[in-house]
Amino acid sequence: MQQEIRFATFNAFNLAPAGAKLYDNLLPCTQAEFEAKVDWTARQIDLLDADVIGFQEIFSQAALKLALSRTRNYQHAFHVGFDPDPSCERLSPSVALVSRLPLAAPGVAHALFPPGVAMPPGSREPDRFARPVVHAQVIVSPELSVDVLVVHLKSKRPDYRTGDSGDDAQQYALACLRSLVRRGTEAVALRVLLSNLARGAQRARVVLGDFNDVADAVTTGIVQGIGAPQGERLFDAYQLQRWADPLRHVGFSNLHDGRYSTIDHILVSEHFNGALPNAIGEVIDVIYLNDHLVLALAPASDHGQVLARIRLFDEAHGLMDAGV
């Protein structure tokens, strides 16, 4: 059995075919721009060299497959992703999972909230995720499978209603509140899904994604299950890493208006929290690939990529801890 597993999360930033109209304020990319973006994405995927990668902002699964075909190490990887409704007037972003490790079964998308979770009355699409969650069971060895979920929670971009204007302070505030309520509701729905997994199969769990908020935000804490029984909780891989170096604190995945923040996270279950007695592995380190943000490379993503390296314990781990 391999002794290290590498998980990564990668917001690809509007990965869509040339000519596709995504937003009113964004021109479609040209064929040359699309080719450059696919090439950069392929190089970055190889640079991550992760066993499992969760992707966000995939407007076309075919575009992601094209990028995979241009990699050195992922041409035969397993791909789980579902394009939005083709009858829609415009493409919309979705998530995807790519794994070099085999899958126990075809991956699934969770579009609807679990029973009992819903947006307030009058909300648009009150019963579903804006970007369906993708879930797959990854086989590390005959003895170890990991439930991996890829998520992209609602952004902080104001959710205006028809006729609203950002020039009006009250309308702007209410629009921001709508976005927060949706992100919070999606966090609750995700927490219910994760708790159900923990109570059922009781396999190790990893969540990869763009949470659109920092690690100590209320919404991120909801997903982690803070306050829940330990067996249902998740832990921020960055906080668990064994080799953290405070002198090399360059852990950011987003650069906006000159502010550095980390809104892309990797969460792991107790199985990979080396401080807990039932752990089967530990997070060695968490690495941020973010030089392209400072360099402002044209084809690059506007997010840094996050990579977590997890070392699996061998049978002698307990004896080693005891000094034997």
Description:
The protein has 324 residues and is an alpha+beta fold. It is 24% helix and 30% strand. It has 7 helices and 14 strands. It has helices at residues 31-48, 61-69, 169-199, 218-224, 237-240, 291-295, 317-321, and strands at 4-15, 52-58, 78-81, 94-99, 108-112, 128-141, 144-152, 204-210, 234-236, 254-256, 259-261, 264-269, 281-289, 305-312. The strands form 3 sheets. A 6-stranded mixed sheet has the order 3-4-2-1-14-13. Strands 5-6-7-8-12-9 form a 6-stranded mixed sheet. It has a two-stranded antiparallel sheet with strand order 10-11. β10 and β11 (259-261) form a beta hairpin. It is globular. The model is unreliable at 318-324 (pLDDT under 50).
